[in-house]
Each structure stands twice: as structure tokens, then as C-alpha cells.
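Check the record.
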Amino acid sequence: MKYNYLIKYAAMLVDETCYIVSKCYLLNAKTIYNENGKKEIEYEVAFPYQKKDNIWKRVPPSFKHGIVYEVFDTYEEAVKDVSSKNRELCERTWINLARTDDYHEQVSKKEENFNNMLAKYKVLEQQILDNTLDIDQANVKELNEILKVSKDKIEILSSSLYEFLKFSSYTKYVVYSLPLEQYRKIVELMTNSKGKGVPRTLLQASPILYHNPEEEKRIMVLSKNGVVTYYIDDREVLIDNDEFVKLDSFDEDAKQVYTTETFEDIILSFQKHKHIDQNKIKGVSLKKSLKDEVKYE
């Protein structure tokens, strides 16, 4: 995967109005020591969906960071925290009401308005969760440095595959996918032989990417049979290939690069994600469940 931060759940404040549960990338954790002798942990996180002009867009972790004071491993844990925070926000809507004869009626009206508003945001929460299924701790792994293979030697480059792709837009290359154990064996042999004693049989691997800017500016994403299944454009977005294209050979001048990333990793890293239009979100269908489960009284 392109982004391999820890994945957590946290309460995300929406429109300064209420909280919803969202996955997040955990970027940093800092312990704050207070003068009263107590301490708290401050978490720097990046939420994968962020809002601009009422449109929620999937953004990279580098786009905008936020600070939260609790993160959770499961959705269920985060729901409890979000419910508590929303309960506090709901209570603030009537805290300054005068104690008139219709006070309880006014409080009930405030509660109803808050829960009706929350219904819409709970639909937003579900849509964001549905569109971040690919962000999963199970997909997170440590990226290995890529191997560059020439006729004379094998080199370990000081970059991951995604760094290489970013700075190689004018370079011809083929990227092959190696199993992790095979990669480790090659690295071990290189350490002992300075890259000259590695059997070429260890480099038998499947091509997953091909780039020849003289013929096609986009990066070709290859299936096991050499079929061009997708393209990656200059915006780093995955595009379906509607035509049957099969590559039986590659330009002999193309650099040969080996990685432990797989075809599936490439798809997860560059797939296009849906935008969510907040103006089109309706919460009527969730009103009953809100009354049953998370209405704040």
C-alpha cells in the first residue's frame, strides 16, 4: 500500500455541529505533561474524507491534519465516545433556556431538532465508512526498498516503489513483483556478495507495471498474463482499460525494478474514490434507529 500509517477510529467533528465516527491515519502521538501533575496523549491524525464546498472528498494523509485525544481500535469503541460527545452537544442546545412553564416542552423540541439533524450526519458517517473499506490495518505493512537490476549487478535503491514512480515520469521501466521471502533472500545474498553473486533464477517474477513515455505517458498496470488491465494517469488515479492490450515483451532499454508490492497493492493505492455530496444526504430513513439507539435525553 502507498500509505502505511496505523489505522484507527476517532470522533470527527463535522460542521462544528456534531461528531461522527471515522477511520483515520495515526501520524503522531505526543505526551503532554500538565502543571497539575497529570498527563494526556495528543494524537495527530488525518481523516481520509474531508469537506470542501459541501463536497466530501477522499484526500491523502498529507492534505490536512487534526488533533484528537482518543483513538480506538474498533468502530464499536469509537461509537461510545461519539455518543458521549454528541450528548454533551445536545445538552448545550437547551442549557440557557429560561425555566418557564413550557421549559420541558422546549427541551423536548431542542432534542428532537438535534436528533433530526444528527440523522443526516449518521448517513454521512455510513457513506464515509463504506468508501474507506480499503483503509484497513490488515493492509498496512512496512515498505521495502526496491531493487534495480542491470546486466552486471543488482542494487538496492534508497526509495520505496511509490517514491520511484513519483520521480520517474520520463523514465522507461518495468516493475516486477517479488514474494517477500524471495526478496529477503536476494538482499541477504547481496550483502555477502555485493550484488554480483545473486542467481538470476531468484529474479523470476511477474511484471506488474510498465512505463514507456515515448509510446504511452500513463503507467500500464499488468495482470499476470501481461494484459494491460489499468492505467495510472499523471494525477495518480487508476483508470480502467477498455481495450484488450497484451504485452509479450518490453523495451530493452527499460530499467528493471523489483518490489514486494503486489498487483493488489497497486489497485488499493491508486483506485479512484467517490465524492460525497452533503446536499444530497437525507437522514429520514435513519430517524427510527436514532430514536431507538442514540437519541439524547
Observations:
- The chain has six helices and 15 strands.
- The two ends are 44 Å apart (CA to CA).
- Confidence is low (pLDDT under 50) at residues 284-297.
